[in-house]
From TrEMBL:
Gene3D superfamilies: Cytochrome P450. This is Cytochrome P450. Keywords: Heme, Iron, Metal-binding. SUPFAM superfamilies: Cytochrome P450 (SSF48264). It comes from Knufia fluminis.
Length: 505
């Protein structure tokens, strides 16, 4: 009997798989949409790129568009689009498109955070708690907190011997991590104090992102591991899964800070103040926003979300921009000349403000080009039309079908940016409205990046004072080292290392 059952299974499984493949290729609602046959048959076509070292599906999709056109079937039940009109429709303010039910949004570490909310109106309500405190005006009011950590970073670099090799990938991560915690809670975690910026928790976060592609294709394993590991003693987790231990420790720090604010006697009665942290102000006005149902756990998850997003996206933009500048003598010379004229005293403890630095045209151009080639988040951003089919380029995409767009596809497309793979700050000096519109580093609509004003403040201060105070040379970093893979954010093969020499006044 057993042998008969096994034989039946051995016959039935291939037949069922073949029937499913036939359906997906010829009878599926997406059968008419062009794309690789294997992508139509199995999601592991994407896994072939995402799960191997040195490749990723997001970059492959760019090539698929070159081959198949603006609409490509990238998974059995998912379409990727490269068309700005479509992007505008799906990501516009008031869009009714929901986030798709996708493994990247089921990250257990983010459970309860705004990141995991699919429905637009619910997402808007949660964002409404924090949005006033990430406005341009609020960032300017709390800019001293940003400058405090920026000065600590710059002074730490200054103390290194001239010609020292510095791991700027880690340096930028430590700096942005301390900035976001300082801004959120007026209390950093001291990442900048780590020797050579090699802080174990930042390394753990970096390694955690590298593991994410595996979890997209095996989400149940991710959820099981997270809950199983949560039952183990902390010391055991540190030994067997240091990546998870570091991530959980940072989340605990965020949750503890939220708890301290909730337990403070004046929270809930004190009005918004420019002297208080972002989270203290946000919690104090929660009853006025109708957000009284937001739990302590959800607030802690949001705090961790701000930490993770605010650390890697900005630090990556700084790293990519610096990489291009140290390898582009002409651009570096123009930037340094502009900075020398505007900042006569490079080592003053009184830094120029973000608002003042925005007046510098070439610095602004460098930052925009760094954002374009640093991308922000690089992952495909699946959305679904919940109520009706979606028509695009002569194709009909059934309602409920995930429709993806990704930032690199637009930023590396010559249709939208001439000579798109080259670092050319000059393109922004007389940029047209269309060029500005084609930049999608900060997704638009109901899920636009809430922290973009904070990111701009950090980018202006860091680029201005890094290149005003130091001469930089490449310390052996190669183009291959800076090749990125999609881990939601771009993760490079190796770190950016430079030799720093303080400039004389």
């Amino acid at each position: 009997m057993f042998s008969v059952t096994v034989t039946s299974l051995l016959i039935a499984v291939p037949i069922l798989w073949a029937l499913r493949a036939f359906y997906r290729l010829f009878l599926h609602p997406l059968a008419a949409i062009p794309g690789p046959r294997w992508a139509a048959i199995t999601s592991m076509y994407g896994g072939w790129y995402d799960l191997r070292a040195g490749t990723d599906y997001t970059r492959k999709i760019i090539k698929l568009h070159e081959q198949y056109g603006p609409v490509v079937r990238t998974f059995p039940n998912q379409v990727h689009i490269l068309d700005m009109k479509s992007y505008d429709e799906i990501f516009k303010t008031g869009s009714k498109f929901h986030r798709a039910d996708n493994p990247i949004y089921a990250n257990p570490v983010m459970e309860g955070s705004a990141f995991n909310i699919r429905e637009p109106s619910a997402a808007r309500m949660r964002r409404g708690i924090y949005l006033p405190f990430f406005s341009r005006q609020s960032i300017q009011q709390l800019e001293p907190l940003i400058q405090k950590q920026m000065l600590k970073f710059l002074d730490g670099l200054e103390r290194k011997p001239a010609g020292s090799v510095v791991d700027l990938t880690m340096g930028f991560k430590c700096m942005t991590a301390d900035v976001i915690m300082e801004y959120c809670f007026k209390k950093s975690l001291g990442f900048l104090d780590a020797e050579h910026f090699q802080h174990s928790l930042i390394l753990a976060l970096d390694n955690w992102f590298k593991e994410l592609p595996k979890l997209w294709y095996f989400p149940n394993v991710q959820i099981f591991m997270f809950h199983a590991i949560g039952l183990l003693p902390e010391k055991t987790v540190e030994k067997i899964v240091p990546v998870m231990a570091g991530t959980m420790w940072v989340k605990k720090q965020c949750s503890d800070r939220v708890r301290e604010l909730l337990e403070a006697e004046d929270v809930g009665t004190t009005l918004k103040s420019s002297n208080r942290s972002m989270f203290a102000n946000a919690i104090s006005i929660m009853p006025q926003t109708g957000a009284t149902r937001i739990t302590e756990e959800q607030l802690g998850s949001d705090a961790y979300l701000f930490f993770a997003a605010g650390t890697d996206t900005t630090s990556n933009t700084l790293a990519f921009g610096t990489w291009y500048l140290v390898n582009n003598e002409e651009a570096r010379r123009k930037l340094k000349k502009e900075l020398q004229d505007y900042i006569p005293n490079a080592r003053s403890d009184h830094l120029r403000t973000w608002q003042e630095l925005e007046k510098l045209p070439y610095l602004s151009a460098v930052i925009k080009e760094s954002l374009r080639l640093g991308f922000g988040a690089v992952h495909r951003q699946p959305r679904v039309a919940p109520d009706s089919d979606y028509a695009v380029h002569g194709y009909t995409i059934p309602k409920g079908t995930p429709i993806s767009h990704s930032t690199p596809a637009y930023h590396l497309c010559d249709t939208y940016f001439k000579d798109a793979n080259s670092f050319v700050p000059e393109r922004w000096l007389e940029a047209s409205t269309d060029l500005e519109h084609n930049m999608v580093s900060f997704p638009r609509g109901p899920r636009s990046c809430i922290g973009q004003n904070l990111a701009y403040a950090e980018l202006y201060l860091a680029f201005a004072y890094m290149f005003r105070r130091f001469d930089m040379k490449n310390a052996g970093t190669t183009a291959e080292d800076m090749m990125w893979t999609d881990c939601i954010v771009p993760v490079t093969k190796a770190h950016l290392k430079v030799k720093l020499t303080p400039v004389s006044e």
